[in-house]
Protein: Sec23/sec24 transport family protein
Amino acid sequence: LVVHLLIKLASMAVRATVARFPIDPEALESSGLPWGVTVTPFAAKDESGNTPVYGSDGHLLPRCENCWAYYNTYCEQEQWAWSCALCGTLNGLSSEVIARYSLPQSCAENMSSFIDLELPVEGSEEEAMQARPVFVAAVDLSSSEEFLELTKSALLAALEALGPGSLFGLATFSHKIGLYDVQGPIPVVKNVFIPPDSDGTLPIELEDVMPLLSFLAPVETCKDRIASALETLRPTTSWERTTAAGQGLDGVLLGGRGFGVSMEALFNYLGSEYGNTFALARVFAFLSGPPDYGAGHLDTRRYGEQYASKGEDADRALLPEQTPFYKDLAAVAVQAGVCVDIFAVTNEYTDLASLKFLSIESGGSLFLYSNTDDSTLPQDMYRMLNRPYAFNCVLRLRTSSEFKPGHSYGHFFPDPQYENVQHIICCDSYATYAYDFDFANTVGFSRHTSEPPMLQIAFQYTVVVPPEELSNSGSSSASRTKHSLKRRLRIRTLQCGAAQNINELYDSVDPEVVLSILVHKVILASLEQGVREGRMLLHDWLVILTAQYNEACKVVQYAHGSSTTAHFDVAFSQCPQLQPLPRLVFALLRNPLLRFHEEGVHPDYRIYLQCLFSALEPSSLHRAVYPLLTSYATPDKQAFPRHSLSRAALITSGSPIFFLDAFTTLIVFYSSTADPTLPFPPPHDCLLRTTINKLKQERSITPKLIFIRGGQDDATVFENYLIEEQDVDGSGFTSVMGFVSFLEEINQSVLEYMK
Structure:
């Protein structure tokens, strides 16, 4: 019932880079701003805190015969017809619809521009009821005891989060695949050896090793047996692996992590029951290093190569995938109705650049933990399974005829047939997608307010509704454990304004959404052309924006009639909405996402950040790029709500306690001059702790919490976040002040650009 209520509360958040759109291509060009939106289709609330109006009969909703947009409250309705608010076409109404619409307040689509309608589920009633959630854990045994202990804790947390009616399967992989049957009195494991050759497949189908319904156990009756099966997991010994793999080249031992073959076999195994036993299966793959055995093995030697000596860009060499194997495998997963989450717990090079497609293209997530000691894996697992999600989703964005969607960004796969249609296998309440816009012609929008820019986002999705415990129904226990599927259509139609001049445009900027679109663009550029190219793109964008703004607002000052020295307003002092942007760009250039390989950024960590950042909603991304630093006079009293990320800010504030929120990390720092009577760490019932707990509750991942006493503990991890005194290119502190000298450099670049 709780999950059902959560599903009911889901919403859709849409945010634009500019609240008022540029009036024509010239206005867009001269502004220097990106133009687009971010969409969080399954968000708990929309950006203003509203929820949709719910209704039924989504299949009866009228559609425009020209552009296929859905009927909405912005459409003009006559007795027998309606005009499409997006393209202006006049459409006829059927007599059934006229009868429905004659009663006021009877249909959601006449009450709100934000609606969520139920659609009829195809197939018999019996099939619709049989959809049980399926979860399979695939555990890497070519690992250590510590890795397996952590994985066990994570799976025990997962079992607590899974609702009644769920089915759970436990599989292991190394040089062989192990399948567990936990439905008998003692857990039984059956193994199949994986052929070592790179194009090998299993000699036997998994269904013939163990029937799928013996492998998938009902969680509510088998929880204890699953737990005891987890207790039996042991790492495969190096002796076992060597014997299986045989000696490698020149006596070098081959590994034994047959991840690729195991995944493919599992997808085929599960796929046989897709649409029958389950509507979506989730596979949790726990990986302790790179796949190095059988089909899909990855050559990790490319990480050790000396790119610098060859004059090659290491960042460029390590970002593309080395094989299409996992991208192709993601397509197999999608066909089998499987969503894959990868949990990599490793500090060795694992080539996530090749592996990431398996998770992001199947609708799953990619998690990376560098060690087992302080890993938040169990918390992340519990949190991920405890939040509502939709699956088999289709997202479609339509615009009025003056403009059109350009690029789309996010973890989905595009429809092979239709433009601007995205398929999302699994979508939770945090998953965010972005689009940028282009004008469809040179004319742009009408200066009359009678034809404003329109945007319509349609999101079709399925949710599993758990069995309601109806005490008065007196139904048999068997029918009470059945889940049912609900197919829904959520539509949000937005009417936007057009800015009449450049000042109106600049005043309507949302800097967080601008940052989101920029991050997507630089990730794309660095994947295609290397990190250096990504950095240049970002730097040049800020230079052009600054030049266009100075030009538009006429604020440039030339020194004594000289054209070689000029003072541009690089801080955007006339426009509060643009003021955060130089700091955000500076911080993004200091972020490991865009720092160089030679600065010690691990390529797997960079890929992890790319996957994380490209799915975050704008406010979370802002935190991750430019952390929030607040100060406290005591654990119960806030001193200042925001400081710049500099040592100077710490010293001048004089506050004893600082709290830094960097999205994935939370740090409480007591300054070395803090009164020794202040309790450390902050007590559990104080304001600071309440703030921390609330933040942890709202996050999509579990942030790591660190307490530091200045002067006693090593404060490096905290000081690394104080980026404003750091040089933008390279590590460490320089004689010049970082952010200040960055602005001077932008001033110089603007001068050259203006010439």
User: Anything to note?
Assistant: The first strand starts at residue 13 and ends at 16. The CA atoms of residues 646 and 722 lie 5 Å apart. The mean pLDDT is 86. The domain at 131-237+254-386 is CATH 3.40.50.410 (Rossmann fold).
